[in-house]
Amino acid sequence: MGFFDKLMGSKKRDAWTAVADRMGAEFTEGGFWRNDTLCLKRKNWTIYLDTFMRSTGNSSYPCTRIRAPYISTNNLQFRIYEENILSPVSKWLGLQDIQVGNKKFDHRYMIKGNDEHMIRKLFEPQDIKTLMLDIRSMAIRTKDKEGYFSAHYAENADLIYFEQKGIINKEETLSALLALFCLLLDRLVEIGAASEEDPKVNLD
To answer: Considering Cα of 121, then 126, then 128, then 134, what sign does the dihedral take?
Structure first.
């Protein structure tokens, strides 16, 4: 396993293995330079859960991330994150905040995107909203590339992307996040924003 995965001991490994067994995913233990990875198959998609080091200035810290490549059909882009003390300032400055019509959800989350109508449809199902309200520190966005050293992406391949500071080792949180990604992928297809075809992107 990777260096900081090793530092976490068996607690993380046990939790990730248990989640893999419960959800029919594949857990791969890494080596010294490679971190543990959990891969969950969903139809023709693969959802990747792993960890990495984020560097900011003179400090570095571990992060947990989830990535799900898919074929985009209309370049729908969005970012959703929890409201914070700066959110009212952002709204006052005119930054977009898309409301989905659920008071509790709209109070908790701020949504930005390039198609308000499609994004409202994306977050319309109650099961998606329920999972997001149950998970704390939630921030999800779409990405169309991941930098110079990342896997090669087809022109129409995008990602659903989650990142959180620290190592997540709570089984309930991990299961809920993976279930949420499955629902979002299915919903993107339902609203015509994604294809079910294999994006042919390997993030291992």
So the answer is: positive
CA nearest neighbour of 50 among 172, 148, 178, 138: 178
> How would residue 85 be classed by pLDDT, with cut points 50, 70 and 90?
very low
CA–CA distances in Å: residue 2 to residues 5, 38, 102, 196: 5, 14, 41, 33
Run of H or E residues at 39? strand 37-42
Q: Smallest Cα–Cα separation from 199: which of 165, 168, 160?
A: 160
User: What is the reported pTM?
Assistant: 0.88
Q: What is the CA radius of gyration of the chain?
A: 17
* Cβ(18)–Cβ(171) below 8 Å: yes
Q: Where are the domains of the chain?
A: 3-195
The one-character DSSP state at 168 is -
* Start-end of H helices in the chain: 3-7, 10-23, 87-92, 103-108, 116-122, 126-134, 171-190
Query: pLDDT for 116-168, tens place per residue?
Result: 999 999 999 999 999 999 997 789 999 886 665 566 667 789 999 999 999 99
